[in-house]
Design goal:
By secondary structure, the protein is an alpha+beta fold. It is built from 6 helices and 8 strands, in the order αββααβββαβαββα.
Length: 212
């Protein structure tokens, strides 16, 4: 059953014009969306256009290549889509801004498998598809499962290469550290890593400095 997602408070106009507070992720309103969208047009792309590091902030640190995990927020998704609109041949619909602004309470943990080129094997003897399955947050011994999917208009514009999958959690659940992220990758291996207060501060800071 789909849950209604409410629009949250508008951004504050301080030195960091998009932030809703030092301990939270960015909130956008119509004015700051337009500023973000124009900023995206100035960003030069490098490497693979659909590498996870272009559309989310690194959540699992030190993983260049396989088993990358990023946190995708409305801000990082919007900036990424703006910066790749022409390069990725996107047909951005007229209601994209409204869709993004109305769905800011859901953040997405996105595991992906980005093969290191010199390690690629074209053998068909693989254990799985590469796509992550069955992700959960583990907090105080209890599992919190993802209950949300990405808005279909936004999802259509986001990457689906590198076997990426988007697991939706409420902003409150992501902010309520500490917890452990666990998921089964496409090879059938259990991947886990912890997120504490220091990690959260880094995620929030890197989102505010995100360059898509």
């Amino acid at each position: 059953m789909k849950k209604e997602i409410l629009t949250l408070a508008a951004a504050l106009a301080f030195a960091l014009p998009f932030t809703a507070g030092a301990a939270d992720f960015i909130h956008l309103d119509e004015a700051s969306f337009d500023t973000m969208w124009q900023q995206g047009k100035t960003i030069k792309k490098h490497g693979s256009l659909e590498n996870p590091m272009h559309y989310g902030v690194e959540m699992r640190h030190g993983t260049i290549g396989s088993n990358q995990v990023v946190l995708v927020t409305p801000y990082t998704a919007g900036l990424y889509i703006s910066s790749t609109e022409t390069l990725r041949l996107l047909d951005v619909p007229h209601d994209f801004r409204d869709r993004l602004l109305q769905n800011q309470d859901i953040l997405f943990i996105a595991p992906a498998y980005v093969p290191v080129h010199h390690l690629i094997s074209w053998s068909t003897e693989t254990k799985g598809s590469g796509r992550a399955e069955h992700l959960a947050l583990v907090k105080e011994g209890k599992m919190i499962f993802p209950r949300y999917t990405m808005d279909p208009v936004v999802d259509e514009l986001m990457p689906h290469s590198h076997f990426v999958r988007y697991f939706g959690f409420t902003r409150k659940e992501i902010l309520d550290v500490p917890y452990e992220v666990r998921y089964v990758n496409g090879e059938g291996d259990l991947i886990s890593f912890k997120v504490d207060e220091k990690d959260l501060e880094t995620l929030i800071r890197e989102e505010k400095n995100f360059k898509a």
